[in-house]
Amino acid sequence: MSKKLDCLCGEVPAAPVKPLAPFSQEAMGFLSALSARLLKDREAKAYPDVITFAFFCRRSSLEKMRQEYDGQLEGRLGRGICFHVAPSNVPINFAYSMAAALLAGNASVVKASSRDFIQTRIVCRAMAELLAGEWSCLTSYPCVVTYPREEQELTERFSSLCDVRVIWGGDETVRRVREAPLKPRAFDVTFADRYSLLCIRPEAILAMDERALVGLTLGFYNDTYLSDQNACTSPRLVYWVGERQQADRARERFWNAVYACVSARYPVEPVIAVDKLTAGCRAAIRLEGSRMEPTQDNRIVRVLLEELIPGMEDVRSPGGFFLEYVDETLDALCTVVDARYQTLSYVGFEPEVLKRFVMERGLSGIDRIAAVGHTMDFSLVWDGYDLIRSLSRKVAVL
Hints:
Elements: E1 6-9, H1 25-40, H2 48-56, H3 59-68, E2 76-78, E3 81-85, H4 93-103, E4 107-111, H5 118-131, E5 142-146, H6 152-161, E6 164-168, H7 171-177, E7 187-191, E8 195-200, H8 202-207, H9 210-223, E9 235-241, H10 244-263, H11 270-286, E10 291-292, E11 301-304, E12 321-327, E13 341-347, H12 351-361, E14 368-371, E15 381-382, E16 385-386, H13 387-390, E17 392-394
Parallel strand pairs: 3-4, 3-6, 4-5, 6-7, 8-9, 8-13, 9-12, 11-12, 13-14
Antiparallel strand pairs: 1-5, 2-17, 10-11, 15-16
Helix pairs in contact: 1-2, 1-5, 9-10
């Protein structure tokens, strides 16, 4: 085994492991114990993403998830071993991926980001303590490792062990990991590069009192700046649905409130400032009729579009770069939405109305519809995959 491999918790399975039933008592018990440990951890309290994960794993939360599958999982077992390649830029994603696989009945080898995120260390420390004590029976089920991405031999080793490979990351990451062969019956579940947007009715912004607007902009900040806009769920296009003059008034009010929120919380790194300037130049070249909107400084960069153009998704930057579009209906989405579109967040819409629009228009993208402030909330249905069903198998009686 490579000296560059760092095992943060658990043990790499040395032999086939016993699949568990979905939502087994072992999985539910371990995750709820992990939740309790994290919620008592003083260091964890400084990291909202760790605490959010801990709440996801609470016994009451797990029971609610289980009830959503009530009567639907008869005769199902986990597939065996899942090998997860977690994204490099979202610290806590590895833990959600592992938890979903365990709830589906699987053991896991999770390649966490090789960047030394303290959140990863906190969660793995808590798991290691549980596995060294009352949960030693699950030592081979949650195994978390890190190693440099160029160590392809390790990726090949873990790929050869697994029954399902779960790949999170950009298109290039998916391509590179797929170079490692799988067992004949194993398969990939991939979460590749995606694009997300926010749809707003102007009248909703204009009708808000100041307290509600502050709460909304904090939620928007959490959806975007908290992850440097690197999360696939972070909106990059803001689509205003309404009459132009009303939309312009709402835009001014909304972005002024966003700026007040961002300026108090978000220091602009020089490299991100340069990235945003470069993206603005790309927009001027590629997006005909677009114009840069005036802003107080580089914390927010906005490009107003005359029309939605296929390929505009490639004009992007981390740290607060937004395309904007105003129209009286949602119809323009039909010209650009493809399989790359993931999360549609909203203000002033009923979510079922948006779902009906996606379904009736037969859009090939948009897998998630979420309120502002909740785009990053993890769910067992992600990117159109039902993870419990995808990561388990059905034992049929004919």
